[in-house]
Design brief:
CATH superfamily of the domain at 225-325 in chain A: CO dehydrogenase flavoprotein, C-terminal domain
Oligomer: heterodimer
Number of helices of chain A: 13
Helix content of chain A: 25-40%
Strand content of chain B: 25-35%
Strand content of chain A: 15-25%
Radius of gyration of chain B: 27 Å
Bound molecules: flavin-adenine dinucleotide, iron/sulfur cluster
Shape of chain A: globular
Number of helices of chain B: 16
Distance between the termini of chain B: 61 Å
CATH architecture of the domain at 225-325 in chain A: 2-Layer Sandwich
Structural class of chain B: alpha+beta
Chain lengths: 338, 729
């Protein structure tokens, strides 16, 4: 681990000033991802700007009936927050599907959005990796890629985004509030993470001097018909091979609104408006869900070891939509898949 | 009198462990302690062309950087580096010896600093240039280069011919990946510089005397110069049988700097130590239509390093389990640019029996026989390799008791025939077998007039419960409450013990303690007899019970005897005496039953029930014994479904060297485990009838699960671990 300077930001403008003053600086919140990467010498910040005590821990109603969640709300607090459990249970469920109780207690909303890929080469400084050291090559393309992306990949990088929370946020149509040297801006969560293209070292569209201050949930919470299903190599405490966030609004058995996002398959949570639109007005049946899955997975390509993910994702989408339609969401406490 | 032996006695060290009072190797303090951090090679083969430590040395707090070019002397002869567990053939790895790189992750420098963070930071500043050489790390692509090793199994009959003519023949490769032990405690050594040139070494090890002798020979020291202690070990599972890098490096640092040095390996660095070697197990079985075996052929092809031949008995187990007139067994090694493998829980058997028991299941399917019925048809009452009977073998009872507890009789034999909602249900079973070994161990007992006894022995307790069984045996033999017994273990100055491994320590240490206690009893009888007006004037059949020495109905308190005789303490040391009767084979056995539920569409596997029925002689402690078996079952679940050390052969590097990505079962993966100890009186094996339980718990479990997965899905997965991608395509 490198020697680092340490500053504690007193408020958001202070954090932005500190970031601007030291281009090598990084924000630290829960530290559960950043410290690990520093130990591996993957991240070598010159300075840590501790934002963990900033007053960004509120969950508040917005004027239009949604919720605004401070960037420092711990993942556990958010998952068990009464308003989230009641109005946005999909988000609770996705958070609880991730990591372990201890990690979720430390992890923050902002840190979760910013967590980096789990690609093994990214973590191992002795191997080439475009994301870690631009221009060195992608070891995963023809190497160990069993858990790599099948959608939105590039010749430079086939890494996946590991966050569970983001998948639910994408499905719910969340917004990300950002503050920076030139003021504040808001972008859709689905525009927050990038595809790798030829710049895989950039995970997100957050500018270098910017900080996430909050995420905002629109009013519609899909609290009745939703499910988050995570398929992994053991029954808990593993990153997703494939995960699905599904949310429906039903009128009788007809779908009036559908949301569908995939995790573990791309450099960002994967949504397809086309797939969702195809469900509008349809009956909630496995056939229709299968067709939506096909649309969602359009263009999926595999490398040597991850071909299984395409079929797995398809089946998982159908299952999750069935769970959502029948109002029997996947439990994250019982590891049996419903 | 057995107040303790055979009962579910709680661990005597349990309180110390859960309160943190128990100290582990990396926790011992020393004045002016320095901290070493290992710099590891990042290529699998070549030499160090340049090693520049100047930047690291400039860091404030760094005391020195030891390298092959800058270090105190190390022994030059291979023999000096051969510890008691080293493979016979080969040249053991020597940390910081020369510029050769033999495997990825090999230690190439030790940064020593006033604190650990400084050492760790400075380690990133050590610049290394390599001359790389061509290398190979992939067993499967190098399979053609496999070379046969000598193993004691002589062929019987003509297996190839019998296979050709067999009515039913089954032949398959089972592939078991390399696996790492991942004990919870990190490998650590605190080498305390005593000021006068002698060193006290606190090390995480399974054998303090092995490490002590090794360090003396590597550093040219006299036995009194180095003392090794390892009072508590947070799991080792075989990885601590051989002295590891960190103990050499910490001692080297202490000698170089004449100060105390601690070296703790990181989790990642522990993947440069030994591991269960990847094997391709080729099994061929030939059977008659009635289900009796006519031929068994088992060949294991295993990875080893370029510099040592590590091999274990993967293939000999069919000789013990299944009657067959023809048999051919062989073991081959492929030398690769990797670290030398080492023992890992049930070495050889965990892999070899897994393959054999999957093959037996496949044969049962081919013969349309119930898997238990097939095994009973082939049941062998003799160890065929030497044609010997067993001291005891209650495997039949294991099958019966296990099957009953599991409900095996309700099994529909057809694959995919049982289901529970969206899940396919599978029931599978397998046999387990291990050796019942015993080794020379000595114990010392000091009985004091206040009715306390201290028992001491150099043996380690690697978490298995040695402290507890030693206390139980001593308490019973001395007729004292267990609270009056204190146990000291794992100090190289204590009476002799080999490494703790192979499931031999329970039987071996128990008999040493028993012997010493009997000598104490004799001494007490002698003293009692000499007391004026003694009620034990002519002591015969003397027993010690409830603090009394008794004979023929008369009794006198031990305290009185000692006070009268003006004896403050009685000290006796005894080496266990096993008269190994070569006309018997010694083994433990088990029958393992597993239920899996597999999501039909998604391939997600849950092991919902395991019943393990074990016959292992007398169980000294049914509580710690049960824990051993449960731990073995959980590990078996991991071996079946999760564990795999993944290497990128283009770099010759392990790519999942951490316990986030190297998967072992978590609580959610573990459901019901039922352990049954089958009564197995054995008067031949040793006086107490004890066989040992360390390894048997894992053997057979992976096969039972794989067989259950087949029964559930109709898919035979022969490449472990069985991950869901193998089921859904
Ligand atoms: C063993 C293990 C298993 C895990 N399993 C899962 C899993 O299954 N699913 C899952 O989703 N996650 C998993 N995680 C990841 C975990 O969710 C993240 O580590 C956590 O969410 C990061 O939050 P943090 O507050 O600790 O971030 P930090 O480590 O503090 O920061 C991470 C990054 O975010 C940046 N950052 C933090 N806050 C802000 C902000 N407000 N604005 C801008 N940038 C910011 C930091 O600069 C840093 O680059 C796992 C982690 C571990 C260690
Ligand atoms: S997939 Fe991306 S992160 Fe992984 S090696 Fe390639 S470039 Fe690096």
């Amino acid at each position: 681990m490198n020697n680092v300077q340490y500053s504690r930001a007193s408020d958001v403008p202070d954090a932005i000033r500190l970031l601007a003053a030291d281009p090598g600086a990084k924000l630290i919140a829960g530290g559960t991802n950043l410290i690990d990467l520093m130990k591996e010498n993957v991240e070598r910040p010159s300075r840590l700007i501790d934002i963990s005590r900033l007053p960004l821990r509120d969950v508040e109603d917005t004027a239009d009936g949604g919720l605004r969640i401070g960037a420092l709300v711990p993942n556990s607090d958010l998952a068990y927050h009464p308003l989230i459990e009641k109005r946005y249970p999909l988000l609770s469920s996705a958070i609880l599907a991730g990591a372990s109780a201890q990690l979720r207690n430390m992890a923050s909303v902002g840190g979760n959005l910013m967590q980096r890929t789990r690609c093994a080469y990214f973590y191992d400084t002795a191997t080439p990796c475009n994301k870690r050291s631009p221009g060195t090559g992608c070891s995963a393309l023809d190497g160990l890629n069993r858990n790599h992306a099948i959608l939105g990949t590039s010749k430079s990088c086939i890494a996946t985004n590991p966050s569970d929370m983001s998948v639910a946020l994408a499905a719910l149509g969340a917004l990300v509030h950002i503050a920076g040297p030139t003021g504040q801006r808001t972008i859709a969560l689905t525009d927050f993470h990038r595809l790798p293209d030829d710049k895989p070292h950039l995970d997100t569209n957050l500018g270098s001097g910017e900080i996430i201050t909050a995420i905002e949930l629109p009013p519609r919470g899909f609290a009745r018909n939703y499910s988050y299903l995570k398929i992994r190599d053991r029954l808990s405490y593993a990153f997703a091979l494939v995960s699905v966030a599904a949310a429906l609004e039903l009128e009788g058995n007809a779908i009036s609104e559908a949301r569908l996002a995939l995790g573990g398959v791309a450099h960002k949570p994967w949504r397809s408006l086309e797939a969702e639109a195809a469900l509008h007005g349809q009956a909630a049946t496995p056939d229709h869900f299968g067709r939506a899955a096909d649309l969602l997975l359009q263009g999926a390509t595999a490398r040597s070891q991850n071909g299984f993910k395409i079929e797995l994702a398809r089946r998982a989408v159908v299952r999750t939509l069935m769970q959502a339609a029948s109002a029997t969401p996947q439990s994250q406490a019982h590891k049996k898949i419903a | 009198m057995n107040a303790y032996v055979g009962t579910p006695t709680s661990r005597v060290d349990g309180r110390a462990k859960v309160t943190g009072a128990a100290k582990y190797a990396g926790e011992f303090a020393a004045d002016h302690l320095l901290h070493g951090f290992v710099v590891a090679a990042t290529i699998p083969r070549g030499r160090i062309a340049r090693l520049d430590t100047s930047e690291a040395l400039k860091v404030k707090g760094v005391v020195d950087v030891l390298t092959h070019a800058h270090r105190p002397p190390l022994a030059d002869k291979d023999d000096a580096w051969k510890d008691e567990v080293a493979p016979e053939k080969g040249s053991p790895f020597r940390p910081l010896y020369d510029d050769r790189i033999k495997f990825n992750g090999q230690p190439i420098a030790l940064v020593v600093a006033e604190d650990w963070e400084t050492a760790k930071f400075a380690a990133t500043l050590v610049r290394v240039e390599y001359e790389q050489e061509a290398f190979a790390t992939d067993l499967e692509s190098e399979r053609g280069k496999a070379a046969k090793v000598d193993q004691p199994h002589k062929p019987r009959g003509d297996a190839p011919a019998a296979l050709t003519r067999a009515a039913v023949r089954l032949e398959a490769d089972y592939v078991i990946p390399s696996e790492h032990h991942n004990p919870m405690e990190l490998y650590a050594t605190t080498a305390v510089w005593d000021g006068n040139g002698s060193i006290t070494v606190y090390d995480k090890t399974q054998g303090v005397q092995n490490v002590q002798k090794f360090l003396c020979s590597v550093f040219g020291k006299k036995p009194d110069d180095i003392r090794v202690l390892s009072p508590y070990v947070g799991g080792a599972f075989g990885s601590g049988l051989r002295p590891q890098h960190q103990v050499v490096l910490a001692t080297l640092g202490a000698l170089a700097l004449k100060r105390s040095v601690r070296v703790v390996l990181t989790r990642q660095q522990m993947y440069s130590l030994g591991y269960r070697p990847m094997t391709i197990e080729h099994v061929a079985l030939g059977a008659k239509p009635d289900g009796t075996l006519d031929a068994v052929s088992h060949e294991a092809i295993a990875v080893t390093s370029r510099f040592e031949d590590f091999s274990r008995n993967d293939t000999g187990w069919a000789e013990q389990l299944y009657k067959s007139p023809n048999s051919r067994l062989s073991h081959k090694l492929v030398h690769l640019d990797v670290a030398t493998p080492c023992d890992m829980r049930a070495p050889g058997a965990a892999s070899g029996v897994c393959a054999l028991e999957c093959a037996m299941d496949e044969l049962a399917v081919a013969l349309k026989l119930d898997p238990i019925e097939l095994r009973l048809k082939c049941y062998s009452d003799r160890d065929q390799s030497e044609d010997l009977p067993y001291t005891s073998k209650r495997l039949r009872e294991c099958y019966a008791r296990g099957a009953e507890a599991f409900g095996w009789g309700r099994r529909n034999p057809a694959p995919r025939s049982m289901r529970d909602g969206k899940e396919l249900v599978g029931w599978g079973m397998a046999t387990g077998v291990w050796e019942a070994l015993q080794m020379p161990v000595a114990a010392r007992i000091v009985l004091t007039a206040n009715g306390h006894a201290e028992v001491s022995c150099a043996a380690s307790d690697i978490g298995t419960g040695t402290y507890t069984i030693v206390a139980q045996v001593a308490a019973d033999a001395l007729g004292l409450p267990i609270d009056n017994i204190s146990v000291r273990l794992a100090d190289s100055t204590l009476p002799q013990a080999p490494v703790e491994g192979g499931s031999w320590m329970a039987a071996s240490s128990a008999h040493a303690v028993l012997g010493a206690a009997e000598d104490i009893r004799q001494e007490l009888a002698r003293l009692a007899k000499a007391m004026p007006g003694s009620p034990l004037a002519d002591p015969v059949n003397v027993t010690l019970v409830d603090g009394m020495i008794a004979s023929n109905g008369a009794a006198v308190s031990i305290a009185d005897v000692m006070r009268h005789s003006k004896v403050e303490r009685i000290e006796k040391q005894k080496l266990n005496q096993f008269v190994e009767d070569k006309s018997y084979a010694r083994n433990t056995h088990s029958a393992v039953f597993a239920e899996v539920k597999v999501d039909e569409e998604l391939g997600v596997i849950r092991v919902t029930r395991v019943v393990s029925a074990v016959a292992a002689g007398r169980i000294l402690n049914t509580k710690t014994g049960r824990s051993q078996i449960m731990g073995g079952v959980v590990w078996g679940i991991g071996m079946a479904l999760h564990e795999e050390t993944v290497m990128d052969h283009r770099f010759g590097r392990i790519m999942n060297a951490n316990i986030a990505e190297y998967h072992i079962p978590v609580n959610a993966d573990v459901h019901d485990i039922d352990v049954i100890f089958v009564d197995e009186p054995d008067e031949r094996i040793n006086r107490l009838g004890v066989k040992g339980l360390g390894e048997i718990g894992i053997v057979g479990v992976p096969a039972a699960i794989a067989n259950a997965v087949y029964h559930a899905t109709g898919k035979r997965i022969r490449r472990f671990p069985i991950t869901l991608d193998k089921l859904i395509d």
